[in-house]
């Protein structure tokens, strides 16, 4: 069912500093930052040859990564995103397997403009899993 | 400097259960488990089209993931591994940039039989970073 690893998201308290770390210390290709107010984050994409890293900084009130950064002040790996061909079929398979889909179970349009779902970390080894239909 | 994302490592308290989750719930291609006593872990590889996930369970005394699992009982993302062409050049660049290399600074032979180094999470947004020379 799952296909490519689309991205690993790292929540950071200071996006400019984190971007500089990836650019200068790790010598990676970094994007300009993009504010995504409807998703409550500002994002920088780290382009690797086979996938990407997303550095996320909270934006505005009620950011979905605010609580994570309260618990992990220095930042950390927040979620991992796998691609699927058919997100509704994936959701139905997961639900029938006993996995919990977060929210109301309906795919939302994610930060890349594509349908996404998030799966409960308690069902996936303490890891928040995002599925994105590509 | 950094190249491909080689793998994301997820520490798990119960490897058989975690493997079953990836096989049956997520429909992924999973390997047989491999005990790596010299690295203190038993590992299962999840093969994705563009990279891999490594599920790690502690093996023996003094496993390098034991403390992580004490803090994160359900498991969680433990480290991320980027490939480099020249690990000594990478180390020297990082040291000159002020990043802390863990251990004595000398590359060790990692679980894939290749030279690796680990970088201090405090210098990388709370994320433990492994570099592997490929």
TrEMBL record, chains A, B:
Domain VOC: 4-134
Segments traversing the membrane: none
Pfam family, one: Glyoxalase_4
Keyword ATP-binding assigned: no
Record GO terms (molecular function): methylmalonyl-CoA epimerase activity
Top-level taxon: Bacteria
Coiled coil: none
CDD domains: MMCE
Keyword field: Isomerase, Metal-binding
EC number(s) on file: 5.1.99.1
KW Isomerase (keyword) present: yes
NCBIfam families: metmalonyl_epim
PANTHER family linked to this entry: METHYLMALONYL-COA EPIMERASE, METHYLMALONYL-COA EPIMERASE, MITOCHONDRIAL
Protein's name in the database: Methylmalonyl-CoA epimerase
Organism: Pseudohoeflea coraliihabitans
Gene: mce
């Amino acid at each position: 069912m799952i296909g490519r690893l689309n991205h690993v998201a790292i929540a950071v308290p200071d996006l400019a500093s984190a971007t500089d770390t990836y650019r200068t210390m790790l010598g990676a290709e970094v994007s300009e930052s993009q504010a995504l107010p409807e998703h409550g984050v500002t994002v920088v994409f780290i382009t690797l040859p086979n996938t990407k890293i997303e550095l996320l900084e909270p934006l505005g009130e009620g950011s979905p990564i605010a609580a994570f950064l309260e618990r992990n002040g220095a930042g950390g790996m927040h979620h991992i995103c796998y691609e699927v061909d058919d997100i509704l079929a994936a959701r139905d398979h997961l639900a029938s397997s006993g996995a919990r889909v977060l929210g109301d179970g309906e795919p939302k349009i994610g930060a890349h403009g594509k349908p996404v779902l998030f799966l409960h970390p308690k069902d996936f080894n303490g890891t928040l899993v995002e599925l994105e239909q590509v």
